[in-house]
Design brief:
By secondary structure, this protein is α+β, with helices and mostly antiparallel strands. It contains two helices and five strands. GO terms for molecular function: serine-type endopeptidase activity.
Length: 136
């Protein structure tokens, strides 16, 4: 894997940006709390005709052109279809962004504060004490 727990990821997701095989994306499946960072394995372009007038019954996509994606984790032997909770492909609405850079281990501060609430309160008390002492 390229990224580990605690790495801070920098993402981009401009509206006209296309995704290509090999891009590392961050996506969230409806109903899942934690986003997933996996590589694009395959893409497909589909056009939903406007004569439907409502979302396509199978893909649940509005009329128009859409890019669909299939992803896979670097350490996984199979694609992510089992993670999609009934979806066959990811659509643009599921993608949070494409990874453009990262800083290793920076996120451990946030993880530590969430895993150990006492640390968070101690840090807040310390900052409050500093604010009172440093007052001019």
């Amino acid at each position: 894997p390229r990224f580990y727990r605690g790495d801070l990821l920098f993402l981009t997701n401009p509206p006209g940006q296309r995704y290509h095989t090999g891009d590392i994306t961050v996506y969230r499946i409806p109903g899942a709390e934690i986003p997933i960072v996996h590589r694009v394995l395959e893409t497909r372009d589909v056009f939903i005709p406007f004569d439907y007038g409502e979302p396509h019954p199978k893909l649940k996509l509005p009329p128009g052109e859409h890019q669909l994606m299939l992803t896979k984790g670097d350490n996984n032997h199979v694609d992510d279809i089992d993670l999609y909770r009934g979806l066959e492909w990811l659509d643009r609405r599921h993608i949070i962004g494409k990874v453009r850079g990262f800083l290793p281990y920076i996120g451990y501060v946030t993880i530590a504060m969430n895993d150990f609430p006492q640390l968070k309160y101690a840090l807040l008390r310390g900052l409050g004490l500093l604010a009172v002492i440093q007052r001019e």
